[in-house]
Amino acid sequence: MSIRKDPETGLITLHTAHTSYQLWADELGIVHHLYYGPSIGEADLRGLEFRSDCGFSPQPAGLDAQRDYSLDTLCQEYTGSGVGDYRIGCLRLTAADGSRAADLRFAGAEILPGKYELPGLPAAFDNGGECETLRLTLKDPVTGLTVVLLYGVYHDADVITRAALVENGGSAAIQLDKAASACLDLPFGEWELIHFHGRHCMERQPERTPLAHAIQTLRSARGASSHQHNPFAILAAPHTTEDAGECLGAMLVYSGNFKIECEVSQMHSTRLVAGISDDDFRWTLAPGEQFVTPEVLFSYSAKGLSQLSWQYHHFLQHNIIRSVWRDHPRPILINNWEATYMDFDAQRIWDIARQAKELGVEMLVLDDGWFGSRVDDRSGLGDWQFNEKKLGCTFNELIGKIREMGLLFGLWIEPEMVSPNAELYKAHPEWALTIPGRAPTTGRSQLVLDMGRPDVVDYLYGLFHQLLADHDISYIKWDMNRNMTDVFSRLLPTERQGEAAHRYMLGLYDLLGRLTRDFPEVLFEGCAGGGGRFDAGILAYCPQIWCSDDTDPIHRIKIQYGTSFGYPPAAMGSHVSASPNHQTGRSTLLSTRSTVAMAGTFGYELDLQRLTEDEKDEVRCHIQQCKEIQPLVLNGRYDRLTDAMTDTCFTAWQFTAQDQSRAMVSVVVIDPQANPWPIHVRLKGLDPSALYHETLTDHTYTGAALCHAGLTLPIMQGDYPAVQIMIERIDAV
Ligand code: DGJ
After folding, report:
1. How far apart are the first and last CA of the chain?
2. Looking at CB atoms within 10 Å, which of 115, 615, 659, 709 has the fewest?
3. Cβ–Cβ < 8 Å for 573, 604
């Protein structure tokens, strides 16, 4: 049993393999958060709670004399609103009479086997006996508002999921102005915030800042989780490193507007609140209606950041990603985007495919530009008919020839968008997010479809279902190339316009859910101008996401490094592109590009016909090597051996088989030195007593020697040289 409720005290403790989480509803019904950290067994931690008569922190009604009891200073599981807690809150609302308060009090707890589901939203699932659910019901006696707090306790995975269901149990409509998924109120400790910021072509750059007595907010208001901020945050104790120290993560399973807010309070407790962003959000909850918040995945590690990353990697791979592809090596693909952009016909695609096949590639992906009037990025989105005139053949002829070559066929689509000059927009201008009387803002010359409309989702479903049913398509790259503006739905009444952005996400998930259920064998890759929607919500449908539009390997090292804190390498789309690189103009060796791309789902994104014969031979070898190491990338343990942000000379990482039988160490020199210092790496996670052969110097060492003494690499100079070292266990000593 992972969840224990003490029948006498009512104390509830959630147990995972290495952590405990404790909460308690007092006699007033306030649910206190007592602890989240390393396992504490059955200890009752109520005595640790700090109470003091804190000036200007008010008392709940009826507790006038008890000056040391204030919602403003207590650590709580979820906060109400307007009744004395001035810190960042979970809930804001407007009741029928205009009042803005909710005083949430405990109304019951249930422990249930298995994992709860969240209607309309992606959420972690249970593969059988992995999870136990706690349902805590809180009620506001005046408005009738009920908040059900859901906790999914994954014992072995060391993950606790949380979400909230907000229900209107009253007789009048309530406006929800904020409904967070969860609050984590840490009573003690100094914490630093690690978050992942960025921009298009440079996503998920880790930044670590101390928390202050102020509010720090990570958020997206873009209608997508965004390139700029990722819905994942880590709180780490000040000296926590990869291998030691305390840290905990909060990851939203959501792909739209979000907020993760952190505040160190006047009493020095730390509050983290995560959920849908309340900016521009307002949801009308009629009597009897329920609002479902997205899920947050919490995980805690007392053994440093690497351990936390492995917990997330494992959990996302096993409890979020549903695709049958999650355990299978993904086909090595050639994508024509950087080879041709939109300037291609069928012959050009076939030539690229033929060359790719000859080198060992397994799938051709036809990117943007195959449909409607799409000759550049100003037109055509929404008119999803194959452009026979441009391509010079029918769709089936195009695919047929590629299949005859022995390649799988994959296709790029961008279902959520429409070009203003598209036939679809002419027929249904009301289907786009635009504001009456206001000329719409465009992004990449396109408008965003109102995915909150069931008619739009049904239309897109019919269209793409047919496309997949009628054609031999093994892979879909689902792109989304602009952020939302003019967020106004022609279907919603005035008072419900604040719902449009979240309704969009519900529509998107509905569409993704239906198509991925109908075509389980199709490999879906998420994409949003690269990694603009790289989150656990998308991973619930797409086992991999195109990591970034920046394919420069030296930049990719940092992008993939930052991404790896929360997300598994197997989920990162990563391709070898041309040199000089199209985004940065930098020249790099083919072997370096290949080394970096092999730390994700591998593919090519260049015209392979332009390579020299020697380079083609190299590609053949890389593909062979990639196939050999694919199981390591899919299921192995990933270690960051250096800090890609601060170690300026070289970066190294390692994949290790779960059974410690083999490993691969990759090293890339990012700043070649004159008169260099040695490049020295210490390996991780090998069996100390086993004997391993390493391919760098063709020597054998014990795991202990490789992990403690490490390996010294030869001098590496030139255009960012890279090396991959294979480590194979040969015997036990
Ligand atoms: C953005 C994607 O990230 C690229 O890979 C490519 O598919 C373009 N869109 C096509 O428009």
Report:
1. 40
2. 659
3. no
Q: How far is the CA of 527 from the centre of ligand 1 (A)?
A: 8
pLDDT tens per residue, range 518-530: 999 999 999 999 9
Residue appearing with tokens 């993904």: 330
Q: How far is ligand 1, taken at its centre, from the CA of residue 479, in Å? A: 7
Dist CA 356 CA 364 (whole Å): 8
Distance 444 CA to ligand 1 centre (A): 11
| Predicted pLDDT at 1 | 81
Rounded to a whole number of angstroms, the CA Rg of the chain reads 27
| Verdict on whether the full-model pTM lies above 0.90 | yes
Atom of ligand 1 nearest to the CA of 528: 3
732: amino acid identity, one letter? A
d(CA 68, CA 726): 62
Q: Where are the alpha helices (DSSP H) in 209-288?
A: none
Encode pLDDT of 641-670 as tens digits.
999 999 889 999 999 999 999 999 999 999
pLDDT at 684 (0 to 100): 98
61: number of Cβ within 10 Å: 10
Distance separating alpha carbons of residues 32 and 45, to the nearest angstrom: 11
Q: Which residues lie with the beta carbon below 6 Å from any ligand 1 atom?
A: 337, 367-368, 412, 479, 481, 527, 529-530, 546, 549
Write down the pLDDT at residue 58. Answer: 97
For the chain, list the domains and their CATH numbers.
3-320 (2.70.98.60), 333-546 (3.20.20.70), 650-732 (2.60.40.1180)
**Residues forming the active site:** 535, 615
Give the whole-angstrom CA distance, residue 86 versus residue 55.
13
Low-confidence ranges of the chain (pLDDT < 70): 732-733
> Mean pLDDT, the chain, as a whole number?
97
143 φ, ψ (degrees, to nearest 5): -85, -20
Name the residue of 340, 412, 525, 548 whose CB sits within 8 Å of the most ligand 1 atoms, as the mutation to test its pocket: 412
The residue whose CB lies within 8 Å of the most ligand 1 atoms, and thus the one to mutate among 334, 344, 367, 377, is 367
Residue position matching structure tokens 């109120």: 185
| Residue with CA closest to ligand 1 atom 11 | 368
In whole angstroms, give the CA distance from residue 272 to residue 501.
23
CA torsion through residues 617, 619, 621, 623, sign? negative
How many angstroms does the Cα of residue 78 sit away from the middle of ligand 1? 41
Q: CB-based burial of residue 351 (10 Å sphere; 0-12 exposed, 13-18 middle, 19+ buried)?
A: middle
Nearest CA to ligand 1 atom 2: 529
Of 335, 479, 606, the residue with max ligand 1 atoms within 8 A of its CB, to mutate for a pocket test, comes to 479
Q: What is the DSSP letter of 341?
A: T
Task: Please identify, by atom number, the ligand 1 atom nearest to the C-alpha of residue 546.
Answer: 3
CB 180 within 8 A of CB 166: no
